[in-house]
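ingest -> validate -> predict -> emit
validate: passed (alphabet ok, no gaps, 561 aa)
predict: started
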Amino acid sequence: MPQPSLMRATLGLALCCTLLACRPSPQYEFDLIVAGGKIVDGSGSLWFPGDLAIRGDEVVYVGEMTEREQKARRVIDAGGLWVTPGFIDIHSRSDPDNLLGPDSVGKVRQGVTTEVLGGGRPTGFLQAVARPEPGPRNVSANRPTWEQTLRRLRQGEITVNLAVYLQAEEVLRSVLGHDKREPTQPELAAMKQRVGQAMLEGALGLADSQRLSSSGNLSGEQLAELAREIKSHGGVYSVGIDSRAGIGNSVKEAIEFAEQAEIALDILGLRLIGLRSRGQMQEVFASIEKGRESGLPLTASLAPYRSARANLEDFLPPWATEGGREKLMERLSRSNLRSRILRELGRKRPGRFNAFLAAGGWEGVVLLQANSPKYQALAGKSIQAIATELGQTSGETLFDLLREIDGPVAVLYSLISEEDLRHALQAPWVSIGSGGATAGSDPSGEEVLRPHGYGAFARVLGKYVREEGVLDLEEAIHKMTGMNAAKLGLRNRGLLQVGMKADITIFDAERVAGPATFPEPRRFAEGIEYVIVNGTLVIDGEQLLDARPGKILDGPGKPNP
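emit:
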């Protein structure tokens, strides 16, 4: 039989354990504190040392906290690190399907917390209708709503936030199908109704990558009517400049359209393409600044790369590649057709972009990849340099590459000068977007060969801020965050202030870099220590977490709930 003293001790221990188990868990005032960082709030103002606190998905404190006040479920020591709003990729080319993949992390690893879709490629927002009945149509009964279109993304749980443009081409095709003609007045009324409904459901605005008024599908006034519908809901009109028509003319046309429609205009991916454009930067910028001085809200975005990837076949006259590779090989076997190809390389092609002219000849075209031992050893050199090394003419090297290599021949060519790129980055009305798609370890699709989706934002911070001093850090952050949020009318995003959503990027300014290149595009950004999306850590100590806190963000036209 146990001794009474032993029994009392046992009962006492059991009572203590029971009392401890019944004690409430510690109540924390904050969920997360970022302490001791160098805060850049995204407004363009100078940085300041301080702390910030997060409760739920909101920033609830920005300032300096005593050690006793720093009580949270998690405290991140940000000493020596820069704390900024999460980057907003205003020019994303991501495919919505890829965003659900577990490896779709190229953007978030470089500090992006919001991707803006619809400015670079179709999102499937509207379904094309082959043969619509004449007259205005019941919009809600004949097309998927915003919620229906993005339901898969909501259900799939995404890492970063998404916001979506309505594409002008999709609006047109949803009423006309594949008919190549101007709409009738009833059809235009149906388009306006669809645009208005899309804005009420959360679209940011209207993105037009093909200038439909120039292609004959819509008159300038008809497109302006759609743009005015966007404006009535607080949206922005975004346009990709068509380099084939000449950069100066395209910018001028876009500005004239904005004046006609009296709407805010954002030029997506402003690029001065080719040698014919070099030296004309001042003229183009003068046109935009003149429009801004007159009161027009004109802005642009830019990716921090001066080169583009293409296939060598893209440099040939269009007739040479008709019918595919077999037909091309037949043509290359005939000396008269080879001579014709060489004669036509440097000729202007009405209505078509001439990559050979843009590159300034074979000195500006670099071999990237070639599944041939002979030529793969020469990768990284220009076509002209390869020809010189082999003792050939550039034409002979061109034809040998096309004949010997089974499949596309990947090349890199220069779009703009480094001087022009730096000048554009410094313009106060130019913000930063990647112009690329998100990607992971081994994604599919042509975008994997572009470094933009892996390192654009980190490249700006490493190369153009730290190394070259083209931009101040505060200015660069503003162009990636607050400026993009303001353009798009995104609520509660882009700034580190009390009441804003807790999208935050924390990085080491001495190490941040975007090492991805065209030859090696699958290299993740470096120096991005922490990334927080809606108050949840998704990058923790440079390690990717299995977290999907991203949300679908609504544009300015959607009523507050």
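The longest helix spans residues 4-22.
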